[in-house]
Design a protein that fits this description.
Layout (H helix, E strand, L loop, with lengths): L2 E2 L12 E10 L5 H8 L14 E10 L2 E10 L9 H5 L4 E7 L3 H5 L1 H11 L3 E7 L10 H11 L2 E4 L8 H9 L12 H11 L44
Parallel strand pairs: 1-3, 2-4, 2-5, 5-6, 6-7
Antiparallel strand pairs: 3-4
Helix pairs in contact: 6-7
The structure holds guanosine-5'-diphosphate (GDP) and magnesium ion.
The site of guanosine-5'-diphosphate has 20 residues, from helix 1.
Length: about 240
């Protein structure tokens, strides 16, 4: 396992850092590594290099001047590496379960992935249908929504290739972290502020089967210290200082 901290910003030690583990699972080749790469603002590559074992990247984001460190754990979809996953799922905040909208079997395997994750820990799950840029769809948006409704989890369709809906999905999910529980802002405001503060233009539309914002924050596990983020003392909201 190697740490790829290329996007790690320098963190001001005088400011408290909140950490969360976010895991990506799903069949091989559905686009897990590419989605993480997009979240890290890396350019898209068509070259497929199967992931080996488990790897992670750290992304530091800011909210009201405070630092939030998100560790994104990338797992390999092959059966032979599945045994490695439980130890990473434990103490994680969120698990993205990813399928490829152009490969029906990757969608048919989603319930197995969900059962597998739930057998490890009762994590907050997010269903993600990737590759919506492709014209040869085998899974409709409605099928994805129906499965997410049935499982009681949130749902997004994205394209890691075109970057469509990636940042919107990411910040929607991040806004559900316990870090923001107890924050008086409503979820949409938190998302807007997160995007603004982290230099993301919000031009994307959310595709959601249900609103994970209604989920009690206590269902989300926390790795390391975490507390609701409030505007830093002496700083005005959105002042950018
Ligand atoms: P992983 O095995 O789930 O990590 O899948 P990868 O991220 O390695 O992607 C597998 C292949 O699908 C690679 O060739 C990627 O370039 C390609 N890919 C990933 N995301 C997309 C997408 O949104 N659209 C298209 N058309 N191809 C994608
Ligand atoms: Mg991979």
């Amino acid at each position: 396992m190697t740490e790829q901290d290329s996007n790690e910003d320098s963190v001001d030690n005088s400011v408290s850092v909140t950490r969360h583990k976010i895991i990506f699972v799903g069949d091989a080749s559905v686009g897990k590594t590419t989605i993480i790469s997009r979240i890290m603002d890396n350019p898209y590559s068509d070259v497929y290099e199967p992931s080996i074992g488990v790897d992670f990247m750290s992304k530091n984001i800011k909210y009201h001047g405070q630092n939030i460190k998100l560790q994104m754990w990338d797992t390999a979809g092959q059966e032979k590496y599945k045994g490695l996953i439980p130890s990473y799922v434990r103490n994680s905040s969120i698990v993205f379960v990813v399928y490829d909208v152009s490969v029906k079997t990757s969608f048919d395997n989603i319930p197995k992935w969900i059962t597998f994750i739930k057998s490890i820990e009762n994590n907050t799950l997010v269903l993600c249908g990737n590759k919506i840029d492709l014209s040869n769809r085998e899974v409709t948006k409605e099928e994805g929504e129906a499965l997410a409704q049935k499982e009681g989890i949130s749902f997004f369709e994205v394209s890691a290739k075109t970057d469509e809906n990636i940042k919107n999905m990411f910040y929607n999910v991040v806004a559900d972290l316990p870090t923001f529980a107890g924050n008086s802002d409503n979820k949409q405001n938190i998302i807007q502020e997160l995007m603004q503060e982290n230099g993301v233009e919000n031009t994307e539309e959310g595709i959601k089967a249900n609103d994970p914002g209604q989920k009690p924050a206590s269902k989300i596990n926390v790795d390391g210290e975490s507390k609701p983020v409030e505007p830093a003392k002496g700083k005005k909201k959105n002042c950018g200082c």
